[in-house]
Amino acid sequence: MANLPATAAAVLAVLLFGVALVSMTNGATMVAGLCFISASLVIYLRETRLVEG
């Protein structure tokens, strides 16, 4: 059975990376930076709290 919270966190991280790349392309570097940091935090929390094993 799939771990739904861990999967949702992975999807959120991918969406944040996508928003960051689009923001970087448009010149909104602060938004891009915040999205990259947020994605990193989501990945860290996913790996430490949501994934068993």
Automatic annotation (TrEMBL):
This is Uncharacterized protein. It comes from Halobium salinum.
